[in-house]
Design goal:
The chain has about 290 residues and is α+β, with helices and mostly antiparallel strands. It has two domains: about 5-80 and about 200-280, Zn peptidases (Aminopeptidase, 3-Layer(aba) Sandwich); about 80-195, 2-Layer Sandwich (Alpha-Beta Plaits). It is built from six helices and ten strands. The strands form four sheets. Strands 5-7-3-8 form a four-stranded antiparallel β-sheet, with helices on one face. A two-stranded parallel sheet has the order 1-10. Strands 2-9 form a two-stranded antiparallel ribbon.
Length: about 290
């Protein structure tokens, strides 16, 4: 199946729609409830999709299965995401007399050097048991008004990926302390949390993980292959809740956003049969399949 969005994430949508019809045809779940949600703002960490449904109380899962392009591999651990803006303030002046001003860009240069010197080595030493790495990346920098003006403001935006066993608030405080200790005057720097959620890790003995492990083995003939992802899914919105979160679906993440995205049809079939098996193991289904 070819086309833009085929693997990210129309293939999983097709599988889930089929699953809903198949469950209804067989009389629905034997116990409990299966809810399907389809949202469209995951790519920009937006608040109007699954985050809104959680906040409104529209979905309250015990097990959350997030559709994503994993090539039917199992994701049970995901790092948290923290976006932070650091702003430096200075004093504007004519570039011909820079000593009469105070460059916010040069101030930010010293802050970035402090982050690289103090925090980067710590993060390189933080890994989860599954091999996930704690990371930081400065993705944006903005400053100044014109070439002939000493800049009175400069801001950077940081992407911080947090291991499931790292405390989100402690990670933010750690960054604040390093910025505060950069040696700049009081009030010249500010640190603002833009958005973020902690990481999650599903227990190996959880009902959902066990159901997936059994269903994948039954359909494919071999145990599930695990996958560590570099991105973040909508499962992050439930990371603070007592919810078992699993990410699974057909399609290869390496093909996302390409005009010739494709997903092998047998992969879709396997995904559908695996998910039926998961529902059967978790909740049962009303009648035997014919």
């Amino acid at each position: 199946m070819y086309g833009l969005g085929a693997c990210n994430c129309k293939s999983s949508m097709a599988v889930h729609l089929w699953l809903a019809e198949e469950m209804a045809r067989r009389g629905g779940p034997g116990t409990g409830e299966v809810a399907f949600t389809f949202v469209g703002d995951e790519e920009n960490l937006g608040p109007d999709g699954l985050a809104h449904l959680r906040e409104a109380g529209a979905v309250r899962p015990t097990t959350l299965i997030v559709a994503a392009q994993t090539r039917n591999r199992l994701v049970t651990e995901e790092r948290g995401v923290m976006w932070v803006r650091v702003t430096a303030r200075g004093k504007a002046a004519h570039a011909g007399a820079p000593d009469t001003g105070d460059s916010a860009i040069l101030r930010m240069h010293r802050v970035v050097a402090a982050i690289e010197r103090e925090l980067a080595p710590r993060l390189r030493g933080r890994r989860s048991a599954n091999g996930q790495q704690s990371t930081l990346s400065i993705g944006r920098i903005r400053g100044g008004e014109n070439t002939n003006v000493v800049p009175d403001h400069c801001a950077i935006e940081i992407d911080r990926r947090i291991l499931p066993d790292e405390d989100f608030d402690a990670a933010l405080d750690e960054l604040r302390r390093i910025v505060d200790a950069a040696g700049e005057p009081a009030g010249a720097l500010s640190v603002e949390l833009l958005t973020g959620t902690p990481g999650f890790s599903a227990p190996e003995d959880g009902a959902g993980v066990r159901a997936f492990r059994e269903a994948i083995t039954a359909i494919t003939g071999h145990p599930p292959e695990r996958l560590n992802v570099v991105g973040a899914s909508d499962g992050r919105y439930f990371a603070r809740d007592p919810v078992e979160i699993i990410v699974f679906g057909p399609g290869d993440g390496a093909d996302s956003h390409k005009p010739d995205e494709s997903v092998p049809l047998p992969e879709l079939v396997d995904a559908a049969l695996i998910l039926v098996g998961v529902v059967e193991r978790l909740l049962g289904i009303g009648m035997e399949r014919t």
